[in-house]
Write a structure and sequence with these properties.
eight-stranded parallel β-sheet
Length: 302
């Protein structure tokens, strides 16, 4: 069983995607379930988590409708205005959909680098926690400190850090926002056991044509900090296409995981995401006995 814990769909004519400019030539297309399905089949990905790509609730409603008609999408992480007076009602409405599992504000694009630590957001964060919904943190280096404060302020909130907090891998290990800045921050975040991390988006932050050696220090550090119970793999398709492709990213991850125990691979590929997003996992029949043992062990620990 393999789960892609992070991908997107978008249709440009919906008009939600102001960030999707013509210069983003690899992304300036529509990307739909029909486009992704054959890639998943080729890469033996059996389930996915669909994530918002526009800061409007209308897009989330469209994604939920798409997911309901798409067999491989098992969860949706959407958007709602956490500062709006109607947030509680909006969240209640979205949560009525069985595939709605969490929210992701697009923090990386906000002018206020300290937005995540605003006291005015406490009611919204508390509602997410009370409803057992995931909060996904889409941040860049300027927001790292506020995310750490947020994690400390809401110890019962399930926080998933998208794209390993987007270190600037292209700047090198000692460049601004690179490994030397990023590593201690991730260690501090991981000290909060309600914080998990997606192994996604790293190729996008690396130099063009980056290979496994370029990102291995980051993967290794995340593994040391979070361990397999709080790491999950994601493609970030189609953004991945800017500096790679689905098959190559799969192979890169397989190479990185090849010396790790089967139980570790199972967690990072599937069961960590399944636990966080309440996804039912059904191992392939040919691997039923071997995988069921690992999955049963995982479930008993939840």
């Amino acid at each position: 069983m393999r789960i892609d814990a992070h991908h997107h769909f978008w249709t440009r004519s919906n008009g939600f995607y102001d960030w999707l400019t013509p210069d983003l030539t690899a992304l300036n297309y529509d990307f739909t379930p029909t486009d992704l399905a054959p890639i998943l089949a080729d890469c033996e990905i059996e389930a996915t988590i669909l994530v918002q790509a526009a800061p409007c609730i209308e897009e989330t409603e469209i994604l939920l409708a798409q997911a309901a008609q798409t067999s491989f999408v098992k969860a949706v992480v959407g958007w709602a205005d956490m500062e709006c007076a109607s947030f509680g009602q909006d969240l209640d409405r979205l949560a009525q959909h069985p595939l709605f599992k969490g929210l992701r504000p697009m923090v990386q694009d906000m002018a206020d680098a300290n937005w995540l630590s605003k006291s005015e957001l406490a009611p919204a964060f508390n509602l997410l926690s009370e409803n057992e919904l995931v909060f996904e943190a889409l941040v860049r280096p300027p927001q790292w400190s506020a995310l750490l404060e947020c994690a400390k302020n809401y110890p019962s909130l399930s926080i998933v850090v998208d794209h390993a907090a987007k270190p600037t891998i292209c700047n090198g290990l000692n460049g601004e926002g690179g490994f030397s800045d990023w590593a201690p921050m991730m260690e501090a975040l991981a000290a909060n056991d309600h914080v998990s991390c997606k192994l996604s988006g790293l190729l996008t932050e690396a130099a063009p044509g980056a290979d496994l050696p370029a990102i291995k220090p980051y993967l290794d550090h995340l593994y040391d900090c979070f361990g397999p119970d709080r790491l999950m793999w994601g493609s970030d398709w189609p953004v991945l296409n800017m500096n790679g492709n689905y098959t190559a990213w799969i192979k890169m991850m397989d190479s990185w995981l090849e010396d790790k125990p089967h139980s570790v691979r199972t967690k990072i590929w599937a069961t960590t995401a399944a636990r966080h997003y309440d996804i039912s996992v059904s191992p392939k029949k040919s691997n039923q006995d071997q995988l069921q043992k690992s999955l049963s062990s995982e479930v008993s620990s939840w």
